[in-house]
Amino acid sequence: MENTLYIKDNMDSPNYEVFYKDNIPSVDHPLHYHDFLEIYYHAEGDCDYIIDSRIYTLKHGDIVLINNQRLHRAVIKDMTKPYRRFVLWLEYNYLETLLGGKIEYNTMIGKESKTEIFRLPGQQSEEIESIFRKMCRESEAVDFASSYLQESYLSQLLLLFCRYSQNSQSVEETTFENDEMIQSIMDYIDQHYMEPITLDMIAQHFFMNKYHLMRKFKKHTRMTIMDYCKKRRLIIARNYLMEGARIQDIYKLSGFDDYSNFFRAFKSAYQMSPRDYKNYMIQSHNSTIQLAVDRDQINKKH
Predict the structure, then answer these.
(1) Residue partners of 87: CB distance under 8 A and separation at least 6
(2) Which pTM value belongs to this model?
(3) Share of the chain above pLDDT 70, in %
């Protein structure tokens, strides 16, 4: 599946997943987002990374921290060269289970973190890569010890990320042509999502030819302006859904013109209806809480 246009952006596991990907890419994926934390370790490849409208040129060993609902994508600049990376997906509830009460992780790697790229000295990045390799190896094992070892390595990774986030080298954003205009368009959509938005309206607002605007936006994001608008509205709709808003009201609150369009867009993005998605997230949250309770009871017995 790696060399197709399909993007896997939902977890099969209720808590975390880890991947090692090693290929010569044949496609450039568009902006996408997740409802969980993603940590990306860049092992090899000529690559930039976009988070919202910010662009970073990656080096070997760079760690990219992508908090939930941040639109992001890798920009592969040379598709003739290997592209190697490790990817960790982690639910926030499980992050709290592992680190909550131990350290103030939220400002280091959690939702309150201001850091998006860690650039570490060689020895530290090699240490991170070594633990990633161990996690991936155990993820393919099926014996009684594999899940416990995976969790042990995961805790080590997270603690090291927290430690290194305090003294990592800052990474400056790369300047792309017209990236300030792209940021302005994104900001405009974020501020006006409740209103009917058309390409003509945006072009008129920014005094630009709409076809020129379309090309520039798609070159930067690999999606159309209207697809970006839909993704932003779906993020807002998902937040209202999890806050308990009535499903029949959410489409209006998130800027969709009618319920049927909202329903189709939501089901296409999340592979389930809004009601089923809400029930799935509640069950996932309850499973994580039960896991923490069970762990505490086991620890007390020992």
Answers:
(1) 18, 19, 21, 38, 39, 40, 41
(2) 0.71
(3) 85
